[in-house]
């Protein structure tokens, strides 16, 4: 596989997926996870772990096929190819669905189902998922969703026939093949859509379907009998079942997978090992490939709600006061994080490192500061509150008064992404939705702000920034890359809607009978579409 490419030849999008060396069929893969997923409704999925799980349950128009070593190809998934730029100007794109695609109940997947999936992602009541495609289509005309408007007819989106979709945009959208890989394009039949409750029993289009879900305790997947590997260039269905045990803290996950006893021999620790456990894992030379320590595109930021902290001089003093080393030490430690000063991670096309624009420490509160107490929101759980406590300590040492507010983890993102919320600061972790920088930096476009589901979680609305985002978004990817890098530095230096803190290093272990699991170079978390388990007598597998 080439390091990075779009597979324009339709033959590359046909199944079956490339064989996985050493893979065997059968058995049960176990995934140990610290909490339930925020959503199993495909259009509402935002977290990286839910996206990885979604690879097993759902298909999208396109998909990244990764090789586990940082290489990838963008291929057609539901579609026969990654999209056809009809006029060569990036404004009109056509996708043709593969024949023979079916849901778990045997019904065929139609272009109208993909259109309905996209349409429902506009509904405010279903907010939570990525918004790139919706923002591009909104430029063609107003639309609020199929339940609000009573129609699936999204301006700019045409269902030409049972297998063909056409997108028309007022501005060039050269990144559409990438955006088509997002969960926004998961097909949902209109007659099966139960709105806000759809996530309880979503129709699977991938190799697995939900067999059982006890929220907070377990989620069990079984093979989807109507998934056809001949139509899928990425996924496998090696295990008979995939069982997720929920509510297992990260330390316990990694200790159990490390020991590999009984059912834990086929278990994967999904969450990073805490520092003390990580040290034990790194000290065990026998683990070999069972232990993954991979750089990721994930970056932790201290986000500043610019709608509440409106003075850039105050935001600059927050940035100067923040003790990044202390936050890293509390949340990840030296084995699992690296201090960073840029919004874009090194894994992003267009990344350009630059010195900390706020070095030198606190310089005193500006005269313009009104003296009110900053409200710092944190997810509950020791991992998150430890980092938030160091943020509070840093800012209080600089003279700010800080109130730390804890919220249940599944409710955190919904609160932060709702416009007008009552919090000034919050630690957020994010990666680009595809390799280009646009997926992160367009998140500072004030023109996209809405009531809920905001990608712009800092609520910055600066006309100059908005205009620059519009200009660079229309450029071809190779020309856009250095322009995005310049905007990255401008944002952190001049506007300061957030403070980059550290980039994430994934470190966790899997049981001795698990193979084919690797850390996604896009998601920074394990992905499972190559996973397999070996029989007990055979020992561990490669992967």
Automatic annotation (TrEMBL):
Organism name: Streptomyces camelliae
User: Its domain of life?
Assistant: Bacteria
**Name this polypeptide is given:** ABC transporter substrate-binding protein
Q: Where is this region: Disordered?
A: 1-24
**InterPro entries named in the record:** SBP_5, SBP_5_dom
Domain (Solute-binding protein family): residue spans on this chain: 74-445
* Pfam families cross-referenced by the UniProt entry: SBP_bac_5
């Amino acid at each position: 596989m080439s390091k990075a490419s779009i597979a324009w030849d339709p033959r590359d999008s046909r199944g079956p997926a490339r064989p996985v060396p050493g893979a065997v069929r059968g058995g049960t893969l176990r995934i140990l996870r610290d909490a339930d997923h925020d959503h199993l409704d495909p259009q509402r999925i935002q977290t990286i772990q839910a996206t990885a799980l979604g690879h097993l349950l759902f298909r999208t128009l396109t998909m990244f096929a990764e090789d586990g070593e940082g290489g990838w190809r963008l291929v057609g998934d539901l579609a026969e190819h990654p999209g056809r730029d009809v006029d060569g100007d990036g404004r009109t794109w056509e996708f043709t669905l593969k024949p023979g695609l079916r849901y778990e109940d045997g019904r065929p997947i139609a272009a109208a189902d993909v259109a309905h999936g996209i349409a429902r992602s506009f509904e405010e009541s279903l907010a939570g998922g990525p918004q790139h495609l919706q923002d591009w289509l909104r430029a063609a005309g107003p639309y609020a969703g199929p339940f609000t408007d009573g129609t699936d007819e999204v301006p700019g989106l045409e269902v030409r026939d049972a297998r063909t979709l056409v997108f028309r945009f007022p501005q060039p959208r050269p990144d559409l093949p990438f955006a088509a890989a997002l969960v926004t394009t998961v097909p949902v039949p209109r007659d099966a859509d139960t709105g806000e409750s759809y996530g309880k029993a979503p129709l699977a289009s991938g190799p697995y379907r939900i067999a059982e879900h006890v929220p907070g305790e377990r989620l069990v997947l079984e093979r989807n009998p109507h998934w056809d590997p001949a139509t899928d260039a990425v996924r496998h269905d090696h295990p008979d079942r995939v069982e997720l045990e929920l509510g297992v803290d990260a330390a316990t996950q990694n200790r159990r997978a490390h020991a590999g006893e009984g059912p834990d021999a086929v278990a994967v620790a999904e969450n990073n090992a805490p520092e003390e456990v990580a040290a034990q894992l790194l000290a065990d030379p026998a683990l070999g490939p069972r232990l993954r320590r991979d750089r990721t595109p994930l970056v932790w930021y201290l986000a500043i709600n610019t709608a509440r902290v409106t003075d850039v001089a105050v935001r600059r003093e927050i940035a100067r006061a923040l003790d990044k080393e202390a936050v890293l030490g509390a949340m990840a430690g030296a084995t699992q994080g690296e201090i960073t000063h840029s919004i874009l991670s090194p894994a992003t096309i267009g990344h350009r490192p630059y010195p900390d624009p706020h070095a030198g420490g606190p310089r005193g509160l500006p005269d313009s500061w009104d003296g009110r107490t900053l409200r710092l929101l944190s997810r509950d759980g020791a991992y998150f509150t430890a980092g938030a406590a160091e943020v509070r300590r840093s800012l209080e040492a600089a003279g700010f008064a800080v109130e730390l507010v804890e919220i249940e983890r599944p409710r955190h993102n919904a609160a932060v992404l709702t416009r007008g919320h009552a919090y000034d600061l919050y630690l957020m972790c994010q990666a680009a939705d595809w390799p280009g920088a646009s997926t992160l930096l367009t998140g500072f476009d004030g023109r996209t702000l809405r009531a809920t589901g905001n990608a712009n979680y800092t609520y910055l609305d600066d006309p100059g920034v908005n205009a620059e985002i519009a200009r660079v978004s229309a450029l071809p990817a190779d020309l856009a890359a250095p322009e995005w890098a310049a905007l990255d530095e401008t944002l952190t230096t001049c506007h300061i809607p957030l403070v980059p803190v550290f980039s994430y290093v994934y470190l966790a272990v899997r049981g001795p009978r698990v193979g084919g699991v690797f850390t996604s170079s896009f998601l920074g978390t394990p992905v499972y579409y190559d996973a397999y388990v070996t029989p007990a007598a055979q020992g561990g597998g490669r992967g």
